[in-house]
Design a protein that fits this description.
CATH superfamily of chain B: Response regulator
Shape of chain A: elongated
Strand order of the largest sheet of chain B: 2-1-3-4-5
Structural class of chain A: alpha/beta
Largest sheet of chain A: 5 strands, parallel
Number of strands of chain A: 12
Largest sheet of chain B: 5 strands, parallel
Number of strands of chain B: 5
Oligomer: heterodimer
CATH architecture of one domain in chain A: 2-Layer Sandwich
Order of helices and strands of chain A: EHEHEHEHEHHEHHEEHEEHEE
Number of helices of chain A: 10
CATH class of chain B: Alpha Beta
């Protein structure tokens, strides 16, 4: 019976007796695969990407152990390589280290203790390598985001400032008070844009680096609080708001993430309405039942075209130039949901509207 | 000196920046006409279908870089695919808040872009552009 917890070890030796002996000694504690030649060894490596250690005899008819290790270095760099040999030839040792990138050297005939130490130390090395690889991948993602970030900061933060500068420059040439007031209004808008952008960065940081704080959530209150900030927009743009909240049980979740999700989805629903429509609707429906939250935000606005819908959750992507946006909102929503193990689905028809469906399990 | 009547087209997704640029242009040259497009594709459509007498002064385009859907570079690439006769009627200037080196380098790939200016648009820039693009 295979135990998935056991460390996978491949042993390559042309003498069948050695293979049997090795397997008999260690199969209780490790998952031992054996191979009599290069070909069999490669077959094992191809179907078992999780092999952590390879022991190979040095003296074999088709290839030496060092040659075998050298040949698999490029395609299978992860397993730790250990050479077993009766030789004490210095040249072979040098080759083993330089060409075969061998981690350890076990003398023949081996003792159980030698092999156990080799496996234990090799495994530690393997785990450390894997950990580093994961960390490196995470770092790469962080660096890539930082690059995008730096670019966006120069654009999205400078742009409102430069608009203000432009408005101030014009005002210097104007004597008419009414026109100056118009400029002041523009400056105010620009300040608003910059502030919204900074708020987005703050959300981004909270989602990415902040800790989840799980508490009991009351969705009547949360929706009420979030909608409050859109009341004025709704009034000016004449948007009807429908809410339908059914909370059958206590829901435990992170209030901050929930607010970020709701706020961004609502903000989009109000923003991307059809300007000349007489029947603008935003619908919020929340159901907490059977250990799951289902949140549906629906609008009958401009919709998203099929060519853009795959990109809307990407950082800084914007599918329309209607209204101001940073290309940050849905990215933050998606990020928050990844952290909460939740999911989001979007259905949209151009010129008919968009529906976002969010599902989160009760903690 | 006879006052020229330059035509301007602004391509910028920020309505605010269009408004500011429009004011600056009007303050610099009273007889200037200014048309703003918040979407680059609409500006391109306008240019493609516009009928203009060939003797007319060049129309000056101020083009933003970062715009959703079709950005400034996409616009320049599509513009360069238009007929030579249409292209000859326009002078394109990038106007962006970007201080990004890679953006500046990228501009070199588009021969239709005459120059790169950093926002905000000023009277000096407008005057300079008029001087280089208009016949008198």
């Amino acid at each position: 019976m295979k135990n998935p917890e056991k460390i996978k070890v491949l042993y390559v030796d042309d003498e069948v007796n050695n293979l049997i002996g090795f397997k008999a000694s260690f199969r209780m504690n490790f998952n031992i695969l054996t191979a009599q030649n290069n070909e069999e060894a490669l077959a094992h490596l191809n179907v078992n990407p999780d092999i952590r250690l390879i022991f190979s005899d040095q003296r074999m008819p088709d290839k030496t152990g060092v040659e075998f290790f050298e040949s698999i270095r490029t395609n299978f760099p992860k397993p730790i390589r250990i050479l077993i040999t009766g030789y004490t030839d210095v040249e072979a040792v040098i080759d083993a280290i330089n060409l075969g990138n061998v981690f350890r050297y076990v003398k023949k005939p081996w003792s159980e203790a030698d092999i156990l130490t080799a496996i234990s130390q090799g495994n530690k090395f393997y785990v450390a390598n894997m950990l580093m690889e994961t960390k490196n991948a995470e770092l790469q993602v962080a660096y890539d985001e930082l690059d995008k970030f730096a670019y966006s900061v120069t654009h999205d933060m400078r742009n409102p400032l430069l608009s203000i500068l432009g408005a101030v420059n014009i005002s210097n040439d104007i004597d008419d008070l009414a026109q100056i007031k118009e400029m002041l209004q523009l400056i105010k808008e620009s300040v608003g844009n910059l502030d919204a952008y900074i708020q987005n960065i703050h959300d981004y940081y909270n989602v990415n680096r902040g800790q989840l704080r799980i508490s009991e959530l009351n969705f009547e209150d949360i929706v009420k609080e979030q909608l409050e900030s859109f009341r004025l927009t709704a009034k000016i743009k004449r948007v009807n708001i429908d809410t339908n909240i059914v909370q059958n049980e206590t829901f435990r979740g992170d209030a901050m993430s929930m607010k970020i999700i709701l706020n961004n989805l609502l903000s989009n629903a109000f923003k991307y309405q059809k300007k000349d429509s007489h029947q603008k609707n935003v619908e919020v429906s929340i159901t907490v039942d059977s250990g799951e939250l289902i949140m549906i935000i629906r609008d009958n606005g401009i919709g998203i075209s099929g060519t853009h819908i795959g990109d809307i959750f990407n950082m800084f992507f914007r599918a329309t130039s209607q209204d101001v946006g940073s290309g940050f909102g849905l990215y933050n929503v998606k990020d928050a949901l990844i952290k909460l193990n939740g999911e989001i689905k979007v259905d949209s028809v151009l010129n008919e509207g968009t529906t976002f469906t969010v599902k989160i399990k009760n903690k | 000196m006879p006052s020229p009547k330059p035509d301007f087209i602004l391509v910028d997704d920020s309505r605010l920046d269009c408004l500011i640029s429009q004011k600056v242009i009007k303050n610099t040259s009273k007889h200037a006409t200014v048309q703003s497009f918040n979407e680059a594709s609409l500006a391109l459509e306008f240019i493609t279908n516009r009928i203009q007498e060939p003797d007319h002064d060049l129309t000056i385009i101020f083009l933003d870089i970062q715009m959703p859907v079709m950005n400034g570079f996409d616009f320049a690439a599509s513009f360069e695919k238009l007929s030579e006769t249409i292209q000859a009627l326009y002078a394109i200037f990038m106007l962006s808040s970007s201080t990004n080196e890679s953006d500046r380098i990228r501009i070199g790939n588009y021969s239709c872009i005459k120059h790169f200016y950093i926002k905000p648009l000023t009277r000096e820039i407008v005057q300079e552009v008029i001087n280089t693009s208009c016949k008198d």
